[in-house]
Amino acid sequence: MTEHVAVVGGGPAGLTAAIYTARAGLDTTVYDAGEPILARNAHLENVPGFPAGVNARTFLDATRQQAENAGVEFVEARVERVAGTDDGFVVETDAAATDTADFVVAASWPDSSYLDDFELSRIDRGSKTMLGVDEFGRTDRDGVYAAGRVARQSHQTVVAAGHGATVGLTVIDDSDVPHYHDWVAPEGYFTGRDRDVPPGCEEIGEAERREREQASLDALAALSPADPPTMHPSVEDDD
Question: Is residue 129 part of a domain?
């Protein structure tokens, strides 16, 4: 039976963690209660790969599409409680739904009250509360992880996404899925050295490489113009 990962939060950290776990073959669900804080950014200018920056909403839309392409399922609901069971966790949402999971990744900010059933280390920073984790994103509860800002990472998109990748790989390591690297290599990279292709890796020929490259360019070209930034809720609307 395939293990299931529940990711709470649809920002850069949660989406990236989900991409990695889904690509490794774990059933992955992202619970997204609303617009990520990154949507408030006017123009995202410090993420590698975008020489002139990128619209933050476009970045989020593209990352979500990438997660969907990897097989991630999305639930548009707020997680109200995560409780432990004999063989995992139950995830309760405000949509009166209950799901089960083998692993839970907290990637929401700033709320993590849905984890109050567990005795987790927490760090108060002013009005915000963060979760204590080890260097790989594990909390004090086996099977519960935290990624991004809620795990005391810098309030920067690329840092949050990178930490999401770290946590995603940690979940994979803690699962029953064999895994080496998530890496697409040119044909012969491993087999040309009389090596088996390691778990999680893939070899592709030149024709397939060109096809995937064109598909990536087409996907970028198909991105729709994004919405303007969302103002901080504490700023009064004069309209």
Answer: yes
Tell me the pLDDT of the chain (239 aa) as tens digits. Answer: 789 999 999 999 999 999 999 999 999 999 999 889 999 999 999 999 999 999 999 999 999 999 999 999 999 999 999 999 999 999 999 998 899 999 999 999 989 999 999 999 999 888 889 999 999 999 999 999 999 999 999 999 999 999 999 999 999 999 999 999 999 999 999 999 999 999 999 999 999 999 999 999 999 888 877 788 988 888 866 55
Between CA 218 and CA 108 the distance in angstroms is 31
pTM above 0.70, yes or no: yes
Instruction: Give the count of domains, the chain.
Output: 1
- Is the Cβ–Cβ distance between 78 and 96 less than 8 Å? no
Does the residue 42 lie in any domain? yes
> Within a domain: residue 118?
yes
Is residue 76 situated within a structural domain?
yes
The closest of 5, 32, 21 to 165, measured between CA atoms, is: 21
CATH number where 41 lies: 3.50.50.60
Q: Report which residue type is found at 59.
A: F
Picking from 115, 112, 144, the residue whose alpha carbon sits closest to that of residue 128 is 112
Amino acid at 76: E
Domain that holds residue 63: 4-178
Alpha carbon distance 62, 15 (integer Å): 10
* Euclidean distance between CA atoms 82 and 141, whole angstroms: 12
